[in-house]
Design the sequence.
């Protein structure tokens, strides 16, 4: 079947197309060149007056894994506010803060998203992450595997194992957990919490291992680079949420010595200690450092006002933050000498000084970082806000007068502590397309996604141009996934199953001998049963694996 | 004859995966690392291989068609049991969504004690590997742990080596409420568990006093539930002095009314300990016959645990009103689907309603159901996934033999497609 999308204004930063009117052809799930012969067009969509982008990619969203399911089970009252009924083409479920898997897929697609990446896949919980993501329709998915508080790595560091050995372990874990990236959360801090340490600064030692967060970041960032994984080490830094942590973050950037590093939900790590309330914005300093250090990428983790739930691997910081739980219930877990998690419901209030300033800090960050290829649009779903608030966030970025209207309603002391009102920048459509499409695909290392030139998979979103950018982005006219029309007028009309994106870096097989001993002595399952097989993703006939090349490899 | 090694078990809840099983045709023999729960569960012979409709053997197609006819005619189907693997639960929930059924896991009334506490105030919990390597004091509340999980102590407490304890045999075990039924909790160097028995009905008070003592609140009586307050004080002192204490209970064993309040008191006590400059974690037991699996899969599919109805077109959770036994007793359901792929002895409740049983081969009924479809057991007849008790680790179940029995997923998916 040949589909033609005619005369839309195409925003395709991957090939440098910025709003030019172009036709796009789709055949067998992919975008193709204009057929040379007289192949008949089976279906044509007239896109005059429409904006065409590739399907959006959320490079950091908590859509799969144990902590998210704890968050679901914890909050029946939140689901009751947003029941989702079954239709002829869709399953029932629930929405709002932590939607059910099926509803996650539908609502992302209904905003024009066609892929989402779970950033905190615990190796021991990776099966669950993939099983949940296998029940998310339409979207492609993938995960970043969590390392840095696992006892095996810390034992390696204490034993002064060389970088090559660490590279092998990282590569092994990526394969075993079916990952496309590597994440570290509060480096070593989750582990330190199990030894009753309640904070861990960048240069503070884990009391058992004598290893510092800085050591862990260094070896993991090096490993990711040396084994050739496209996605840089994905870092949730030390001291999340602590006033003054801007200095930790700046130190983290300096300390990595030019290695590629992605700092996630940086808003939560950009706090100073100035002012009457000893809480201030560090966004300008962070933006300056990001602008200067080209090895650094960030996503923002914008907060937006309202009820949500925070679900993080960082049980040390989540435990410290439990006193802010709203409603007042929370869960932390220590997990399998591997990692941990903490789930704390939150209600961000615009009349709360801290929350109001967090909101402003996120927006300052978006607007002060110059290169849209190195900053990504996230709310750290659901931690800063549910992903369904993205169209609102896009309007805040694209529409200065709207932004300043909202600013004028937040806590007055917070208004005084931000220079947001004076920032004139408004994001362009092309910059939004970079942040949410081309840039995200490049950052993750996705082949043939995030672009609209021939050869790409036909993940395509069509919007009606509208000065109200929130309205425009919350209801696309059409969404195609792998060439299949899945959304019309902001509603799912058909569904399909996306693929799971992975990389498969090589490692020295002798590593498994030592790991096997470690598993037999200290773990609770056999090494052979720990590794996730390809079958587990594909055996139900719905899932598939897409293996992406490592740096230097040819696709 | 073949011997399969490193076989994971979905039966014992603790995710043992070191079994060796001999396979001779469809006969299985556990030859290494069996236990009182796993060995009979693996070795149970296949009896039924063909489905039955009204007691007569039929093909799978005929049985599925009959089940679909029964379900089509209903106003309020009820799916009970819900004891299967992840894929089985996926198909079960798809069928429930399509038919507007109530879904109720057979262990939910026990598990409800945990869910109510979790959904009201939360908890700080841990997993098996943390226990194996860190736990220096285990407090067992109201539960006979070794009859629940025969190999718990051998695998996770008296393990030869641990990363953070010099000598695992020095770990301390204290029982509060129920006494252990055997010697599994006695350490390898002969140190016996300390036991403070009380009646089930007194546990709420005993646990409340223990929490008060942990917080340093004064207690004005000398005995609670027959236990000396000085003894409870010594437990509180040990909890505060421990480096990483673990408090465990089986929600289903707390068989007294409003036991959720006791789970909550335990969980809040663990939080209190963590505010007193030490570490402590809770550890609810479970993981048998797909209970955690049912709640996990229902959790991500609907947002709620596995006592949820679809009769309004969307999921609605009610831990009391959606109880299968309550619905049957009140005449609120008009068809029963019973799904139990693990345990042939766990038969459906006796009812006059049209009944479809998707059950492990070997089920015997005092009242023949309208439709009986024998299915394979996850981890024996087909591969799959099941959650173990800590609710974090999903074990990868292996296929051990070629029995020809369909999986729960195959059968329920076929029924859904036929609707
Ligand atoms: Zn995150």
Sequence:
């Amino acid at each position: 079947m040949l589909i033609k999308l005619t005369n839309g204004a195409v925003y395709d930063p991957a090939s440098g197309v910025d709003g030019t009117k172009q036709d796009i052809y789709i055949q067998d799930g992919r975008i193709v060149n204009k057929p040379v012969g007289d192949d008949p067009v089976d279906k044509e969509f007239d896109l005059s007056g429409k904006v065409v982008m590739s399907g959006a990619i959320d490079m950091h969203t908590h859509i799969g894994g144990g902590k998210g399911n704890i968050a679901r089970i914890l909050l029946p009252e939140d689901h009751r506010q947003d029941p989702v009924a079954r239709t002829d083409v869709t399953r029932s479920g629930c929405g709002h803060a932590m939607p059910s898997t099926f509803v996650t897929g539908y609502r992302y697609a209904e905003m024009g998203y066609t892929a989402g990446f779970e950033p905190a896949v615990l190796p021991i919980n990776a099966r669950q992450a993939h099983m949940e993501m296998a029940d998310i329709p339409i979207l492609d998915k993938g995960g970043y595997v969590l390392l840095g508080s696992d006892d095996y790595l810390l034992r390696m560091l204490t034993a002064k194992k060389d970088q090559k050995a660490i590279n092998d372990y990282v590569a092994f874990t990526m394969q075993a957990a079916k990952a496309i990236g590597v994440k570290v959360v509060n480096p070593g801090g989750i582990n330190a919490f199990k030894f009753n340490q309640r904070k861990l600064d960048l240069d503070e030692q884990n009391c058992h291992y004598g290893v510092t967060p800085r050591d862990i970041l260094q070896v993991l960032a090096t490993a990711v680079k040396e084994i050739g994984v496209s996605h840089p080490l994905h870092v949730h830094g030390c001291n999340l949420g602590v006033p003054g942590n801007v200095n930790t973050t700046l130190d983290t950037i300096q300390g990595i010595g030019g290695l590629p590093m992605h700092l996630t939900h940086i808003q939560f790590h950009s706090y100073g200690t100035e002012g009457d309330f000893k809480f201030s914005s560090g966004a300008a300093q962070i933006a300056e450092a990001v602008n200067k250090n080209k090895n650094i990428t960030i996503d923002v983790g914008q907060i937006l006002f309202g009820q949500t739930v925070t679900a993080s691997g960082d049980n040390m910081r989540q435990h410290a933050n439990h006193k802010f739980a709203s409603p007042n219930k929370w869960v932390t877990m220590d997990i399998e000498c591997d990692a941990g998690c903490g789930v704390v419901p939150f209600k961000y209030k615009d009349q709360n000084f801290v929350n109001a300033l967090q909101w402003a800090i996120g927006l300052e960050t978006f607007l002060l970082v110059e290169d849209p290829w190195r900053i990504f649009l996230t709310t750290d779903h659901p931690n800063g806000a549910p992903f369904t608030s993205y169209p609102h966030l896009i309007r805040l970025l694209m529409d200065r007068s709207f932004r300043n209207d909202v600013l004028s309603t937040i806590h007055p002391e917070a208004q005084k502590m931000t220079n947001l009102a004076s920032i004139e920048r408004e994001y362009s459509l092309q910059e939004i397309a970079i942040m949410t499409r081309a840039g995200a695909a490049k950052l993750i290392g996705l082949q043939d996604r995030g672009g609209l030139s021939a050869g790409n998979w036909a993940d395509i979103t069509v919007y009606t141009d509208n000065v109200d950018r929130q309205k425009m982005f919350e209801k696309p006219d059409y969404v195609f996934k792998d060439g299949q029309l899945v959304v019309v007028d902001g509603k799912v009309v058909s569904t399909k199953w996306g693929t799971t994106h992975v990389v498969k870096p090589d490692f020295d097989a002798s590593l498994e001998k030592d790991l096997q001993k470690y598993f037999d002595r200290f773990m609770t399952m056999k090494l052979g049963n720990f590794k996730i097989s390809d079958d587990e993703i594909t055996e139900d006939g719905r899932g598939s694996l897409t293996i992406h090349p490592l740096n230097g490899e040819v696709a | 004859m073949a011997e399969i090694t490193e076989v994971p078990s979905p039966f014992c809840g603790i995710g043992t995966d070191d079994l060796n099983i001999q396979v001779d045709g469809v006969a299985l023999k556990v030859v290494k690392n069996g236990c009182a729960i796993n060995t009979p569960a693996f070795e149970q012979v296949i009896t039924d291989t063909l489905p039955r409709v009204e007691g007569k053997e039929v093909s799978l197609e005929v049985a599925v068609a009959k089940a679909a006819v029964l379900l089509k005619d209903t106003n309020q189907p009820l799916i009970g049991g819900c004891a299967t693997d992840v894929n089985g639960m996926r198909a079960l929930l798809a069928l429930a969504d399509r038919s507007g059924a109530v879904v109720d896991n057979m262990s939910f009334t026990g598990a409800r004690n945990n869910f109510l506490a979790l959904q009201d105030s939360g908890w700080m919990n841990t997993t098996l590997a943390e226990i194996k390597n860190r736990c220096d004091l285990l407090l067992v509340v109201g539960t006979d742990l070794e009859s629940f999980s025969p190999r718990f102590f051998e695998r996770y407490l008296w393990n030869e080596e641990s990363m953070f304890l010099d000598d695992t045999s020095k770990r301390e075990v204290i029982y509060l409420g129920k006494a252990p039924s055997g010697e599994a909790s006695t350490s390898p160097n002969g140190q016996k568990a300390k036991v403070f028995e009380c009646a089930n009905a007194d546990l709420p008070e005993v646990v409340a006093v223990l929490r008060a003592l942990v917080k340093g609140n004064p207690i004005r009586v000398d005995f609670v539930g027959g236990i000396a307050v000085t003894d409870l004080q010594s437990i509180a002192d040990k909890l505060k002095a421990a480096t990483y204490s673990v408090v465990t209970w089986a929600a289903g064993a707390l068989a007294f009314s409003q036991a959720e309040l006791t789970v909550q008191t335990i969980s809040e006590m663990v939080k209190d300990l963590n505010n007193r400059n030490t570490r402590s974690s809770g550890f609810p037991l479970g993981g048998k016959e797909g209970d955690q699996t049912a709640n996990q899969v229902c959790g991500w599919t609907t947002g709620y645990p596995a006592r949820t109805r679809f009769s309004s077109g969307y999921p609605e959770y009610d831990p009391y009103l959606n109880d299968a036994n309550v619905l049957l007793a009140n005449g609120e359901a008009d068809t029963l689907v019973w799904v139990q792929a693990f345990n042939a002895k766990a038969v459906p409740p006796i009812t006059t309603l049209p009944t479809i049983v998707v059950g492990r081969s070997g089920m015997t009924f005092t009242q023949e159901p309208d439709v009986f479809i024998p299915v394979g057991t996850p981890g024996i007849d087909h591969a799959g996934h099941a959650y173990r008790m800590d609710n974090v680790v999903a074990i990868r179940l292996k296929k051990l033999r070629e029995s020809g029995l369909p999986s729960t997923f195959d059968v329920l998916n076929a029924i859904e497609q036929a609707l």
In short: Chain A touches chain B through 65 residues (CB under 8 Å).
